[in-house]
Design goal:
about 30% helix, Rossmann fold, alpha+beta, globular, Dna Ligase, domain 1, 5-stranded antiparallel sheet, D-amino Acid Aminotransferase, Chain A, domain 1, 16 strands, single chain, about 25% strand
Length: about 300
Amino acid sequence: MKIALLTRNPKLYSHQRLMEAAKARGHEITPIDYLRCYMNITSRKPELRYMGEKLSGFDAVIPRIAASHTFYGLAVLRQFEVMGVYPLNESVAIGRSRDKLRSLQLLARDGVGLPITAFANSYDKSDDILQMVGGAPVVIKLLEGTQGIGVVLGETYKSAKSVLEAFDGADVNVLVQEFIKESEGHDIRAFVVGRRIVAAMERQGPAGDFRSNLHRGGKATAIALSPLEKTTALKAVKSMGLNVAGVDMLRSKHGPVVMEVNSSPGLEGIEGASNKDVATAIVSFLEKNARPGRTRTRGEG
């Protein structure tokens, strides 16, 4: 196969591993900076160009689009789709997962376990909103935040109200979520490829931090998922329409709850913790599924 890897930084661990795995299995893989792509949008012969050269002949595309460049990155991915190139994850599915509010609404629709979550246009009724999610402490999240940035713990009613009022005054959209105290700074990531969980890890945040992101100093260890955790992870990925995803969950007293479905999950933490070859599992999935024009949505929105 001829594979396009959409990335701004091919030197990252995840991208190096994907390229190594593809080459080891006899495929040609080319890293492409999607911000340097431009396109000819036409019904007869849609084109995509990169640094003056026409991009053609690709069998599959692996999108590794940074959250800060979602809009243009998805435009490039959609152009690949309308050209009949098979995407590892489709543009519509990535768009769903990147929209925190929409993703939670879809997960709730499909009966996936979630922390109690509130969203409002204005937080002048903050007392009622805080009661909706079970009272303080609460977790307050920026809708546009990633990797633990823009996530605040409101430990008391007073502090939570102050944070909400500050965000409201700045006209910033936030979610207010139930704080899962029993998780104690731990979360679980299930790495799904196709309809199979290929690896799982538990992440523990640094002392004094309720966030467990590895880049913030968290530690990861391999873990065996319960049947309900497996079912929840697979259901969440299906709800988003993704083929490959990292599902982040917390163990609550009422079962596993999904915090996020990540459409571009990193490989370093999960491969290091689980000792599983996740990159090869991804390439193997493409080998079995990549066919011209097989995209379900074909760039629809």
